[in-house]
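Priority: medium. Attachment 1 of 2:
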């Protein structure tokens, strides 16, 4: 029985550790235009990358909704099969899973008038330009504290900033410390 709670705590910490280093971005859908008719949201999404943990903020006056729908319903503007719906006027949606996500307005005719948004969510946090699938912690050699050789094969991005590494590593280390604290009385 007790092992269950321990496992629960460990899972929670693991999740926190995984989420903490990725700086989530909040996107205001349509920017100043907000969530309304006659806005081309495919233009708005262009050039933006959406990662797990990022948030979409829909701002709109009354008379609209934000419905998450399937790709099929998005394409055909079909109403009535919404996965989720909200009409609060300020809908915040945290992107939790990778892959495509589709949102339309549930008011008849509005989707056809442009109130439809499709985003493709990637798994990687925006800070790490996914060089590979293995998130192995690269501990630098203890002898060389100053020279950080950017030997990792990042061909695409030039700005591989070593500054962003240190907070990530710091968080990892603190997570490990918490781990030890929790595990020590059990051993
Ligand atoms: Cu609407």
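Attachment 2 of 2:
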């Amino acid at each position: 029985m007790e092992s269950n709670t321990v496992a629960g705590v460990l899972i929670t910490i693991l999740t926190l550790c995984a989420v903490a280093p990725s700086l989530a971005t909040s996107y205001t859908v349509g920017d100043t235009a907000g969530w309304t008719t006659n806005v081309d949201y495919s233009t708005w999404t262009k050039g933006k990358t959406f990662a797990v943990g990022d948030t979409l903020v829909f701002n709109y006056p009354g008379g609209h909704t934000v419905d998450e729908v399937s790709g099929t319903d998005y394409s055909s503007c079909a109403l009535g099969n919404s996965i989720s719906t909200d009409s609060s006027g300020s809908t915040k949606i945290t992107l939790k899973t990778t892959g495509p996500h589709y949102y339309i307005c549930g008011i008849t005719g509005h989707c056809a008038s442009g109130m439809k948004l499709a985003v493709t969510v990637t798994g990687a946090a925006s800070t790490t330009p996914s060089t590979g699938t293995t998130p192995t912690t690269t501990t630098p050699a203890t002898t060389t504290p100053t020279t950080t050789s950017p030997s990792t094969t990042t061909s695409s991005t030039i700005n591989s900033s070593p500054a962003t590494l240190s907070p990530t590593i710091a968080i990892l280390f603190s997570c490990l410390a918490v781990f030890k604290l929790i595990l020590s009385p059990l051993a």
